[in-house]
Amino acid sequence: MITLSYVWFKAGVATMNAMAFVQDTTAQPPAAGGAAGTEDFTLWGMIQKMGWVARVVAIILFIMSMYSIAVMVERFLTYNAAKKQSREFAPKVAAALRDNRIEEAINISDRYKKSHLAMVVNAGLQDIQAAGISVNVIDSAKRALQRATAIKTAEFKRGLSALATIGSTAPFVGLFGTVVGIINSFQGMKSAESTGIGAVAGGISEALIETAFGLIVAVPAVWMYNYFSSKVESFVVEMDNSSSELIDYFLKQRGQ
After folding, report:
1. pLDDT digits 0-9 by tens, 128-164
2. 36 part of a folded domain
3. Cβ(196)–Cβ(149) under 8 Å?
4. Which among 2, 10, 129, 194 is least surrounded, fewest beta carbons within 10 Å?
5. What's the pTM?
6. How far apart are CA 121 and CA 167, in angstroms?
7. How far apart are CA 67 and CA 84, in angstroms?
């Protein structure tokens, strides 16, 4: 029991000594004039104290953010317009083809400029109207439909590679700013000949803002890239189905 009490006593003394050491290390020297108490850790305050490297990184992230937002808005409007016009186009062109009114179906396709289905169907109908329905013309129409699908798919994918690039690189751009900021913090601590977390807390907090900025830019870009990619895949399926249905229509008309 005496030995166990002695061990607990020594452990308590060691703990108290360690706490005193930490307190002495993290305390600000009197010459600092209470700087720790007046340190501005607000977002705007830390941005104002950024070095030139950190500001350059922040500007780059801001430009990436603005570009990604512009791409998101433009792609969202484009996809919504394509979906809306295709819903209006499909029943109208189907009714015209049921009555073998190819000229009217072409005119309907020309009116829906933003519809991906209208573009694909128009390409096939133009070939059929020019040369009539025959085996060779149907093969030519198939190739025209494939070309139209490929062109429209590439148009739908425009800007998505930029979102993917921003989503994958923005965190590393922010991390670069953080690393530079931490290095500067420790260099400042060395030149000031001070120790303790208080000497580098301000610099590290400013540096970590860069990582936060990078994540704020990257996360929405990745989300929207995945969302838009799924939309493009659904559009491609719709175009392929429309192409197949149009070829079936041509084959039935040739058999009659």
Report:
1. 777 666 666 778 888 889 999 999 999 999 999 999 9
2. no
3. no
4. 2
5. 0.73
6. 35
7. 26
